[in-house]
Amino acid sequence: MSNARYEEFVRKLDDIIKALRAAKRNKVSLASHSFYSTKVRGALAGVRKTFLAFQRDYPPERYPRVAFQLVTIEPLVQRMTTIYPAPPAEMLKLADEISFKAQSDLAAELETTEKPANSAAIAVFIPNDLIEDRFHVQKKVLWEINRCYDSACYNACAAMIRRLVESLIVLAFEHHTIADRIKRDGNYLEFLDLIGKATVEPTLGLTRNTKRILPDLKFFGDLAVHNRNAYVRKEDLDRLHQATRSAIEELANNC
C-alpha cells in the first residue's frame, strides 16, 4: 500500500514511540526533564497534527470504513495528548496501541479503499460529455461540479450546479435567437425569472421533470451560498441526481 498520509502518520507514531522508550529507559520524568519533555511534546504534536489531517482527507461521507477506524483511534490520540506529561510507560502503552491499530485495521481498510480508485468504471456525478468542448467556461464549471462532489464539498457542488444551469438557460435562449425574451431594460433577468421563462418557452421543449427540478436546483444553490444556518448535504444532491443530470443535458442540447 502506498499512501502518503498513512505513511506520514506511522512515521510520527514511530517518532513518539522512540522518544518515550528512551525516556522510560533513562527513568526520567517528562514533567521535569527539559530534553525529553521537549522531544516528546514535539513528537506528540506531530502525531496529533497528522491525525487531524488524516480525518480531513477521509471524510465519512466518502470513506465510511476508513473513517470508522479513525474514530476508534481518535480517543487514544486525545487521551495521550490529555495525560501529557504522564510517566513515559503510561504514554508508551497508548502509543503502541495506536500504532497497532494503524498498521492492522486502518491499513486494511485503506487497501480496500484504494483498489477501486484505479478502476475506470467509477462514474462521475454528471457526465463530462454533456457539455460540448466549444463551451469552455461551462465545461470547466461542469468539471468543478464533479470535483466538488467527489471531494465531499457538497455546498460548493450545489452552487456550481446553480451557476451552470443559469448559464445554460441564457445560452439556450441566445442560440434560438430569442434572448430578448429573458431581458429587461437590456439586462438578463434574475435566475428565478429565467427559470420561469424557460419552463414556459415552447422553443426549448423542456420535459416536465426538468421544469420541476429547476426551482429545486436554485433553492439548493441559494442555500449553499446565502444561508448561514444550513448547508447542503450529500443526500440532497443524490436525491436530485437523475433529474439534475437530465435537466443539464436538455438545456445543453438547446445551446
Please tell me about this protein's structure.
With 255 residues, this protein is mainly alpha-helical. It folds into two domains: 115 residues, Up-down Bundle (Four Helix Bundle (Hemerythrin (Met), subunit A)); 126 residues, Four Helix Bundle (Hemerythrin (Met), subunit A) (Up-down Bundle), CATH 1.20.120. It contains nine helices and two strands, in the order H-H-H-H-H-H-E-E-H-H-H. Strands 1-2 form a two-stranded antiparallel ribbon. The protein is elongated.
The strand line-up of the biggest sheet is 1-2
Q: How much of the polypeptide forms β-strand, as a percent range?
A: under 5%
Largest β-sheet summary: 2 strands, antiparallel
Q: How many domain modules?
A: 2
Q: Helical percent range?
A: over 70%
Average per-residue pLDDT, rounded, comes to: 91
Protein traits:
Four Helix Bundle (Hemerythrin (Met), subunit A); mainly alpha; elongated; 255 residues; single chain; 2 strands
Question: What is the secondary structure topology, with strand pairs?
Answer:
Layout: H1 4-25, H2 34-57, H3 64-83, H4 88-114, H5 136-150, H6 154-175, E1 183-184, E2 187-188, H7 191-200, H8 208-226, H9 234-253
Antiparallel strand pairs: 1-2
Helix pairs in contact: 1-2, 1-4, 2-3, 3-4, 5-6, 6-7, 6-8, 6-9, 7-8, 8-9
Task: Describe the structure in brief.
The chain is an all-alpha fold. Helix content is 70%, strand content 2%. Helix 3 (64-83) packs antiparallel against helix 4 and helix 7 runs antiparallel to helix 8.
